[in-house]
Write a structure and sequence with these properties.
With about 800 residues, the protein is of the alpha+beta class. It contains 26 helices and 18 strands. Strand 14 and strand 15 form a beta hairpin. Helix 3 runs antiparallel to helix 22 (about 675-705), helix 17 (about 475-515) runs antiparallel to helix 22 and helix 24 packs antiparallel against helix 25 (about 780-805). The protein is elongated and about 115 Å long. Keywords: Membrane, Transmembrane, Transmembrane helix. This is Permease.
Amino acid sequence: MQLPWRAAPGAALSSPLTLLVSIATTLLLGFVVAAAVLHSSSAGSAALAYQQDRICPQSLHPSLDGGALPLSTAVAMSSHSPLGAVYTRIGRPDFNGLATYGRFGYRPDALAHLTVVEGGGTGLWVPRTIATAARVKVGDRLTGSSLVVSAIYADLAHPVSGWWCSESKTVVPNPLGGDGDSTSVIWVPRVSDLASLPPEFSSGASVSLRFPTEPVSTLAEAEALRDRGNALITSLGLPLTRADVLSSAITAARTSQRNVSSALLPLVIISVLVGLAGVGTVTVQWAQRRHSELRLLWVRGAGPLALGFRGVLELGLPLVLGGLLGLVAARLLLPSYAPGVALAPGTLWVALGFVLAVVVASLAVTVLVACWRTHRTFQRRARSWRLSVVPWELVVAGLAVLAWVRLSRNGLGTAVKSSELPRIDVAALTFPLLVVLAAALLATRLLRWSLAWSHRVRWWQVPAAQLAVRRLAAAVGPVTGVVLVGVLAVGTIAVGSAVAGAQKSALDSKSGVFVGANSTVQVPQDIALGRVALPSSLRGTTTLVGVSTGALIVDPATFTDAAVVDDAAAVRSLLAGLRRTGEVAPALRIGRASNQEVQIPGLPLVKPVSWLPSFPKLGTRGYVVARESVPGVDQVGSWHLWSSLPLAELTSSLQAAGIHYTNVADRARVLDGLPFLTVEWTFGFVAAIGVVLAVVAAVALLLAIEVRRRQNAVSGALSTRMGMRPSVLWTSHLLEVGALALVALAIGAVASFVSAGFAVPRLDPAPWLNPAPMLPDLTPLLGSMVLCGLVVVVVAAWLALRGVRTARMGELLR
């Protein structure tokens, strides 16, 4: 009596297919929960990395700044930091009797980060602008001081290197500012040299204390750095202004991590339920295989609960092994589905805890399903109620309607402001997934009804189709299960890919409209007046644009060379038609701007003659006027260069030509992309879960084929003995499996594309900027899913025919 119980773990080896399916089921289940934990943690680290990339490296550690100090006090304070800088007030240093505006400064190792134009050594380093204006040469002595000029260096200009970024407001002059408001710095080689400056520079000094540190990888490291830094600054006790930009980065990263975690929770719960249902299916098939042994144990007095634990003895080890393998797979595949690879300390232990929880849940499901199966089989209790009677698709559809209401009212978040991350409304976020789930449930119910009535079908003139329908009708349960999981797989992959792609393109298009081009700089009016020519290296990639209140002044011939527009040919055609023939300047009306003549300061009377819904820089309100229609170029508010080149290439060309500029803007950095990335990361994981469900559907289909191997072998062998050609039998199996794949693919694709089409414009992290997110081109995704479906269909049909080709007729009849 004890032998069947003791031999149960080893008995699993007699059914290798059940063993492998058990391992695969909990592997996927463990992968889902572990990947969710790892993905959430990596999202926080990735958000922190994104924020760090936008923060000056030397400002990562809390820092101190102060001004209006005596020079001696500023020098003393600078010694408290390994990178303490001192700057005098702006004065008029005199070298040759031609005094001009300038200031002195010292920063450790500053001379090594400057570009020498002439000279060198350890004397005063004078910027080229001051040297040109004051006719300073190497060897000149500063009047009222013993300091001598030893080098002329190239002025610092935007964008500065990372070493200078924390000092950019001080060391980079504003060439368009007034005299005495901004200037370059004359550097001294030693901090003690500041004491040798003329007395007029001894007051009004400023100091900046920086504490260089290595970048951090996780939120825990960032919080530790922040706390240590604030403690250090507090211990210094200096009466300076504290700057702590790391705290805001940590807050944003924490918010992003919470948003991702909360958004993934409903999906993970649904996936776990699907996985547990798969465990139940495996247990039912195990009970069918062990029917004789279970009946023997039942007759000898074992109850349903004992037989349920009998299932755990045989399937428990594979289930535990599969869960642990799922954790290993989630960790190894982290770079393929997560936004980063840096994990918070202890994340793997948390993931292991969740994996063990779902493994315990799987074992509990195994016990309950085996107990229920033996109870129903041996005690012959009548079934009075079935879950399939409940209209689950209507329940899910009702939840989808509620989610749409939340989505249409609130958009992506319940509190959307330009200064903070949106707090994602999970109920609104689940709308497209609920639509897919409702479509899947409705499809399975209709399929079940159709198969129940399929015995009325008479397609014997097409025997392959008739046999396919008969086989489908004989396996209603596995068929509907495969279709349900298949629709969910296709739908989640499509929804996740669509929303993630839409967020990525929305960030790119919104930043393009906000800046106007890949890079822009403000330049003096001399370029617009024709006194200064643009460098030849910028021709074909750069255009000059004037900006007045609510209007842009553009050059129709070159505007589309640089500006970010969807249809360059159409925009070029409209701009070419803006030709002034009288006192009124024809204009292109943008979006919601008035369609009447309007007077804009610095421009002639503007009359709209054509219309566009949106335009770079203007968004959805404003006017566009041709440059030749504006006689008073000097009356335009400001002039800017727009370029399709990266900012560094644009500014380097201007620096080489000696053209001053200010107010630089880079399309890649002008907007905070973290809100977009948060949604993209969330739905990227949705697509990854869809891939997991697709694997589950494929495994379930192959399992259903393998379980019916003997039935297929008998029917196929008899059919071939009765004259059916092998090609007809092959076509029959292709039709059977292909019909399931086609139904799953068609319904999943339609439901996901329709729901994503409605949801994507509402899932906008920055609704105050245009354009709204748009559904991307999903044709390549659909093609790849069709190709993968064809592979699964062919493999499943080959498995079904394998038993027919190898069958021995005598053994089958026996």
